[in-house]
Write a structure and sequence with these properties.
The complex is a heterodimer of chains A (196) and B (474). Chain A is α/β, with parallel strands linked by helices. Helices cover 32% and strands 17% of the residues of chain A. Chain A has a seven-stranded mixed sheet with strand order 4-3-2-1-5-6-7. In chain A, 47% of the residues are buried. Chain B is α/β, with parallel strands linked by helices. Classes of the chains: A alpha/beta (196), B alpha/beta (474). The interface between A and B is large, with 54 and 67 residues.
Chain lengths: 196, 474
Amino acid sequence: MAKSLNIVRSTAVPLNIENVDTDQIIPARFLKATSRDGFGKNLFRDWRYVNDDENQPKQDFVLNNKTYNGKILLTGKNFGCGSSREHAAWAIKDAGFDVVVSSFFADIFKNNSLNNFLLPVTVSESFLQKAFAAVEKDPSTEVEVNLEKQIISTAGETENFEINSYKKTCLLNGYDDIDYLLNSKKEIEEFETLEK
Amino acid sequence: MSKTLFDKIWEKHVVKRIEDGPSVLYIDKHFIHEVTSPQAFNGLNKRGIKVFRPQQTVATADHNVPTLNQHLPIKEELSRKQVEALIKNCAEHGVELYGLGHPFQGIVHVIGPELGITQPGMTIVCGDSHTSTHGAFGAIAFGIGTSEVEMVLATQCLLQTKPKLMRINVDGELNKGVVSKDIVLYILSKISASGATGYAVEFAGSAIRSLSMEARMTICNMSIEMGARCGLIAPDETTFNYIKGRKFAPVGEAWNKAVAYWKTLFSDGDARFDNEIFLDAEDIQPMITYGTNPGMGIGVNDKIPTSETVNETDRSGLSKSLAYMGLTAGTPIKGQKVDYVFIGSCTNSRIEDLRMVASFVKGKKKANDVEVWIVPGSKQVEKQAIEEGIDKVFEEAGFMLRQPGCSACLGMNEDKIPAGKYCISTSNRNFEGRQGPGARTMLASPLTAAAAAITGEVCDVRELLINEMAEATN
């Protein structure tokens, strides 16, 4: 897993569907591993194959369309709703994406992504629609995400995006929440004594 | 300054605030299960650290366990390995495990409350989005990812940003045949599957107050289906009476002290919410979903929406949803044939749910071509059902009482609905493939599901109830 992120400039895959839930991103029957690796091959499994058969890819599904590729996934609003399975973020990252762009993300998915150096970028609905239109029309259209400056741009459109400054620092430097918490142990113990 | 219920609990658990960032939030109780914990334990082992406060974590096996012949080794290899990993991890780290065969085993969100582990004022997390269930006790309870499970195991804390606050008020009296599942499906149909994203939701109003604890859990359970970070209900005498005497409930002086504190947990009269919604209980009919997200619900007597009548949020996905479901816009849902009935899951598998179903089906038989699975939420629920003779009622009706687990709610074990088949389900999600690839799920209350089991189609349970009443008078 690539630790630390700043500028991602890449073509994009346009998944123009709203309310994509984590059961679609990674169906429950693929959650039986005890490691974090290898989930990418089952990303959107049931949208990708007929009868779960890898020899029968669904031609109309965008991830099977070789014209589209890149490190940026464009998605419809309310992406990642439903189950808290972090496997959804692992699968997207494992499939080669570093950024997911949507007009609205479900809370738990957003947290899970940030904890895996997969950057969720929330844009306006109008920016999103323009991005979809540009990428669908010309698959070689590049999207650039600059985390440091909190800017996303494509096809002549530019927009600022929000990210809390703590999380931004973590992503830019490759810091984990768990490191921060482990370094706060003394304060946590003091808190426990105080509250008891 | 006046405070909301959420504020009162949140502030008591903030260890420190990071400038321009999240807070370090202390977690009182942590539940874990076999599916979302193995990678977290791997992380601890890699760092060479042990669970920080093992007595504050409780484990069970629920997501992928079989619901028949639980005394035998698990046949499916990957499921067995996950359950074995949980046993090993809990043993190595000193975490209490209510695994298969244990009298307390069951769905994590059923056993926490029934053992009295879940209490008002607590912060509770679990690597499962339906952790919101525990909010019914007036606790801040939410689902987390596996990285966060690792954080809680390692430090008993999480980095969290305070969500916005919403209050949903449901006032008035419920119609006959309308139960708490209908309330929450109705709320979802009004605000959509993303209507509460970014919010903690407090449920209030006289209709919520009048509910039992188990009915309140059903509502908070599905707050995640609105996108809410968590759902909560202020504790009251109903809450205290439910907890009293349970295995891990405080006793003696500790009980009195706890209740005195719990009584301070409510939103002050002039507390401010970022959003407030008011609904009328009288408007709620028995509900059912027709689409592929839980916000796509209608009254059982309503017609399936068309692109003109559907909520704006579901417009773009409507035709894809209906194609998946094999349903037609603008036609009644009543009369739709049902192949399977699943009564179970962390939403509706508690003893009251089973009692409700049993009292309705007593003396009736299921329709011939319908398969009916009743999956109790825990070993304790199962035991109680047998003690009360509910198992016999089910047997006579042709319903199959299975063993505890998440089962067909998410089809991680063998309990899958075949492709193309219709299942009326008391669970919480009707996503594509949720109950098995190609399965078509219609969410409903235990009563509406039981009625469908008898008639073999989607029907209005009240019509059957009225017939019964007429027969009783004759």
